[in-house]
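Dear colleague,

Thank you for sharing your sequence with our group. We've completed the structure prediction you requested, and as agreed, I am returning the results in plain text so they can be pasted directly into your records. Please verify that the sequence below matches your submission; if there's any discrepancy, let me know and we will rerun it promptly.
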Amino acid sequence: METKSYFYVPFSKKNDFNDAVGHCQAVISVLGADDKENIADVINEMVVNKEIVADEVLPIVSVVLLDKKNYTTSSINLEGTCKEPATLIQEIATWHGIDVVLGYQHPDLGFLLLNPKNPANASIIEGFRKNELLHVYVGGNDKLDKKLAHSVIDAIMKLLYEGKKTNLPNQVKSGSYVFKEKVVAKPKEKKQTTQRTKQAPAKRVPTRKLPQTKTSYETQPAQSSGGYEIPEHLRRDTPVSATPVGRKNMSPLVSVLVTNELFHNGNVEAWKRIIRAYNAKYPSADVMVYYDGERIVDINTLFKWGKVKHGTMIQFSVADDQINDLSKLRKYLSQGASPAFGAFLKGSPDTVLNLF
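Please find the predicted structure tokens below.
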């Protein structure tokens, strides 16, 4: 008779007995959560609260979803980007009869676990990139056979690539796997006192707190000193929140319109200095640049062969524990992609501009 072990401990030189016990307790905690609550929401909350480390996420998912709950899974190399992330989330959110979990191998942030019924994950889904690895887990319903589960996975991929819905049986639609957004209570304001009193610090009781998102940028249109204004269709009508992904938060992809006749070496140098200034203010932040659906590691390649021309779009995203000054960064990068890029080229090449 085959036996399965439900406590896999990732060993390393730093592991000791306490690490092993902590990992087992984390697995027990996840197993003890409400069966109707998506495991991605539970685990991401634990990572944010530093109850587990990011490297433990994939082993815990394997133990809980595959060994214990017998979910059907498929690992897919993405053939393209997500056409309509909002449509994908809205459609999967109606599948009340099943539980769906996605695991994305982000090239910069590592393994990201997400609940595709949670609207807060739209920015991560929007950032899915071609040829990266996506894990799809489907289960929750004891009567969900493997054939139907794979049909659900096919429907997810059709939604992702084409934005088209698939007719699925009522078994998938009817049930109690419904995403419910948790409401975080506002902290009470402390009354100001005129005298300082010395008191012994109160003993802290460890509790699980819900992660809070931070507004990533303001709704006002940005305008540079060179007179370039962000086009109306690129402005946000409402604030966008960075999505908690455990290790870091990742902002939505932000588009920058190239208004120079060509994105040449002067524009590239301006962008490099702007990003350097941002990293000087926020050293832990990662500014990721994308063009034509691909991550651009070396910005110098953007002006080679004149491939980035007037009227095209360059996208960027920021990953950090907290997303700061995204509006300013967008404003400066927009100017850097315009004929007014020269404002950032003053001083020596290694000059760090005071922009943020």
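Summary note from our side: Confidence is low (pLDDT under 50) at residues 1-9, 201-242.

Kind regards,
the structure core
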